[in-house]
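Two entries, shown back to back:
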Amino acid sequence: MEGLSYVSEVPFVVVDLVNLRSVDVDVDDGSAWVEAGATIGELQYRIAEKSRALGFPMATCHTVGVAGYFSGGGHGPVCRKYGLAADNIIDARLIDANGEILDRKSMGEDLFWAIRGGGGGSFGIVLDWKIKLVPVPSTVTVFTLTKTSEQNATKLIHQWQYVAPNLPQDLSILLTISGDGNGSIQATFIGLFLGRVDNLVSLMAERFPRLGLVKQDCTEMSWIQSVAYLAQLPQGPVEILLDRNASVKSYFKVKSDYVNQPIPEFVFKEMGRWFEDEEGRNATISFVPYGGRMDEIPESETPFPHRAGNLYIIRYVTAEVGEISDFQKYINWTRRLYRYMTPYVSKSPREAYINYRDLDIGVNDEDKTSYDQASTWGFKYFKNNFEKLVKVKSLVDPENFFKHEQSIPSI
């Protein structure tokens, strides 16, 4: 998210893993080895080639590389059912700072713990991952509903906070807020149900009747088709998931927040003015609900600590397609919105998601040690797991060979 592989103030090396992209699926064992250069789309497609009954909990953007996604934890539409991607990793092969190739047994459980959510670029180079596949039904149901302010968008957003984290684990409703071009907001609800349409409509009538979902709003499809659907790809041959260029390139800035208590309705109503600004015309605020399986896994199980108590995560995105002369004002717009949201999100620490890397939450104080500087963002990303990550880093890479602006420090 911050382009840490592209620029640096000091000489640096990038190891390009793009050609390590094979996926070896073992249907009988319910597992797969996936090389670090594969994308989410490639992984899902290769699994579906072998079985319509197996899948993997992944994000919606199909061009994201699996290694970065796994290393930060990796949440997505079915994390309420199956947990994170990192919760379903059972082995890995890593090159450490001494140039040795280690698997789970030889690297030890502490290092294996650290690479499943501790962020990329700190502990070594993961060559490939062994993942536990999850069962998926032959038919799933999806829907997309957009509501305007005239259709009570703000009331629906407010109610979504109470409904979405407490739904049965088979149903996730993602939410995106954007401007309607007239100083108000519109809300887009995107649902994925691991079941048939009739059961979904009945469930929604019981749990979220105000949204007004009807059968005609829904589409039944296979699991792999839903992967393409959630990636907002054209409906057609799922081979498009193999296309690494099938997404719009833009300049963007991302920040994140976690929410522990429902946000008052007036906050969403006031968001309309933010989207009136030039910098807000292509901006979005996205919400992914937690709860379900995410509540059941202890904070210390992996470095990713954002478990029970979190209703959902917010992702703020400011974007602009095409050449622009001054993107700094777009970045500043996102920072102002982030400050505005301060009273309504998690505190002590104000939590953030490592896969939505944000250099704004670091510090640059020459009088502080590298550990003190790192602790500023470290506790936001990892909470109390940060201390263990530092201990693991200090043991496996004491010379701090693997480093970047927000890598885990050695002490």
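entry 2 starts here
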Amino acid sequence: MTRTALFASCSAMPEGDGDEADVLPALADLGFTVRWAAWDDPGTDFAVADLVILRATWDYPERREEFLDWCESVPALANPAAVVRWNTDKSYLVELLDAGVPTVPAELVPVGEQPNWPKQPFVIKPTVGAGSRGVAKFEAAGPEAGDHLRGLHEDGRTALVQPYQSSVDTQGEIAAVFFGGVYSHAFTKAAMLGSGMDASGLYLQERLAAAVPAPEVRAVAEDALDAACSLLGILRAELLYARVDLVRGDDGRPLVLELELAEPSLGFRHADGGAPLRFASAVRQQLA
């Protein structure tokens, strides 16, 4: 039986960044017809697809409510709209902290408020954002940090302040990828702050490489996924994909930096040859 899957993208990157090249034939082998479509394309009927998979909808931060309304209008969306709503606001990091997940400390700074500035280097980022846009590192509190925070607030955006983890400079981040709630593969990401912007203008360029996470790193990634699913009231198997980005804290312990459940790059180009097959199987599972 032939089934239809739509990969949702955006007009600036209508077929993503090329990372899914090996996924399309893997899905075809399981009887799927796959095509790309920008999420806001009025000429595409997303309701007729057996499954709509968020892949490169990277222009949503400036139109988040419109994007979320669209997500809720799609009958078969992966990941589900309620998950996307929760995960596209980085205040979820505070919820993970409260749930006991080892997470980089985070302070929410709503419009008009001031943070307790960290005494070490720190990062300011918007709570709604993608591709590291609007993220800046500062060595100490001062006029530059205040100006950056004020700029976010003038745009009506809540900010998140986090102490900078120095291990990023030497070890980078490690991203653990799950399909259908099951661990698939991992890759490392070098520090992006100060990197050049991609030609699309949607994200900072990354230097990626395949990796095998240490046991304690994978354990924290698993804990983060369990906690998120508990907060959302879902089973891990209900998530087509998940990516947990981790760094080492100053004491060497792994900490969650981000939990990506909406539209993350999944690092297929840096995974083993079985990763596209595992993803295709997870897609089929979603429809079972």
